[in-house]
Amino acid sequence: MNSFKTIIKYLAPFKKYAFLNILLNALGTLFSLFSFTMFIPFLDMLFSSGETVTDPGEWELSYASLMSHFKYQVYLITESSGKFNALLFIGGAVLVGAFFRNFFSYMGSFFMAPISNGTVMTFQRRIYNKILDLPLRFFSESKKGDILSRFTSDVQEIRASISGSLDMLFKDPIEIIVYLSYMIYTSWEMTVVVFGVLPVIAILIGKIGKSLKSSSSEGQIANGEMLTVMEETLGGLRIIKAFVAELKMKKRFEAINGKVYKIQNKVMRKHTLSSPVSEFLGIVVFTFVLIIGGHFILSDGGSTFSSSEFIAYLVVFTQILNPAKDLARTYNTIQKGMASLDRVNAILEEKMNVPEIENPVRINDFKESIEFKNVSFKYAEKYVLKNINLKIEKGKTVALVGQSGSGKSTLVDLLPRFWDIVEGEILIDGVNIKDYKLTDLRSLMGNVNQESILFNDTIRNNIAFGVDTATDEQVEEAAKVANALEFIKEKDGGYEYTVGDRGGKLSGGQRQRLSIARAVLKNPPILILDEATSALDTESEKLVQEALTNLMKNRTSIVIAHRLSTIKDADLICVLNEGEIVERGKHEELLKNDGVYKKLCDMQMF
């Protein structure tokens, strides 16, 4: 029920369209009823015995007055122009009613479009914005394919539920109420039969819908797993082919694909079951109505309504079955949507592990120092960093070295608060970084990582990423500092050249130099370099290292390096081992100590 209320909540921004949808559907239903009740004067004319119809007098705002005046008008046309012309008049009235019925029905759907598509837009915006706001911890514990599944297929299921909710709340009930009112007006005795079947349909469809929600949730989870396999395959095609693992990946995909197939079959079968069940029950009730109504007309005591009115009653009753069946199908659609809504809400309601205080301190410049005081951090139960104490003065270059898994990358990730520390504190200019506004804090820093992350956009837009006010001259100057000017000019279109998915149309060195140019343009006072040259060939490394040297001038730099030759001139080198700083000093000092750093240097030289 809470999920259903949440779905309805998303209709609020579109209440104008919802009101128009309800109004137009109501008008369409009234004209539909008008068309069907035209059968009464039509049948009266075919089977009449020539009785006289009297003038009903003044018009009244009621169904009885409307039908009396219409019958009288048919009678006048019949007397003056003959029965054929009267039939033409009735046929014209039926066509007018049918036209307005379909016109208002279409206009109701016309105003449903912005509601349906608007809710999809709203959900996708909220999910995307939430993804940007969530800390990295969430994504390290989630599968990309599952997130994409929630962003696409789950949102589409919610879209169907939103549309279904509107139909379930307004369109179908309006049709049922209008048609049922006419049936009660015509014969309340027979209409009691209709009330007998509706609870039965509701109970049966409710059981189907409850089972459907569970199966639908299972199906969406499996679909997310399938998208994860697809995403991993696209990202790892080179490795798959290099290790001749195509057959292995095919079997892996076929297994999850088969699982999705079986679950979707189950979901579809349950979803379609409601229609034949409700249709059969409707036919059962229709048969009862036919027998009871026929009995009333044929009984010796006579009936309260004529044969023509009974036929119109039957026609209207057949129309009440469609919204009743739609109501059943819509209920199942909403159950599927609720399962998807639960999955989407798992992202939207995810707690922020990197909270911001209510009145954060603003900062736009780095003046003195960065200090790690007794900092410890753990991902789960095991500590990755233990009791780190480190002070970095403004303008200095500090290098972090150590074996893989020693905690180097984690340490620098704590500074922009990609993760929050467990114990201790990190200070910038004497203020705890948790007290700063998060956007201000991260604006002080520029990152160049081992993996060059580029977007499928132009070279210009990748360099100017995050700096909306950058001029062409500033972009070109940044490219020059990053040693990227030469290869950019060789590309078709120069700065307008599109780099492809993740920069796939460029070499590793070219991608890295664009990453450096991006950091140059941002012009941050604090620079974080995470193994920026470790994946490059010798020639590319030389160009990138020159670009990095240009970038690091007059900046406070924290450098993670595997190639120790690149950090010989660092002001301070910290050696990490199993999450602790075991050595610190300059290059020559550490070599003389004959400790961990000396062993690392000897291994690289060997």
Task: Summarize the model shown.
With about 600 residues, this protein is α/β, with parallel strands linked by helices. It contains 20 helices and ten strands. Strands 6-7-8-3-9-10 form a six-stranded mixed sheet, sandwiched between helices. A four-stranded antiparallel sheet has the order 2-1-4-5, with helices on one face.
Describe, in plain words, how this protein is organized in 3D:
64% of the residues lie in helices and 10% in strands. It has 606 residues and is an alpha/beta fold. The chain has two domains: 15-348, ABC transporter type 1, transmembrane domain (ABC transporter transmembrane region fold), CATH 1.20.1560.10; 369-605, P-loop containing nucleotide triphosphate hydrolases (Rossmann fold). The strands form two sheets. It has a six-stranded mixed β-sheet with strand order 6-7-8-3-9-10, with helices on both faces. Helix 18 (538-552) links the parallel strand 7 (526-530) and strand 8 (556-560). Helix 7 (144-186) packs antiparallel against helix 11 (307-348). The longest helix has 53 residues, at 246-298. The model has no long low-confidence stretch (mean pLDDT 77).
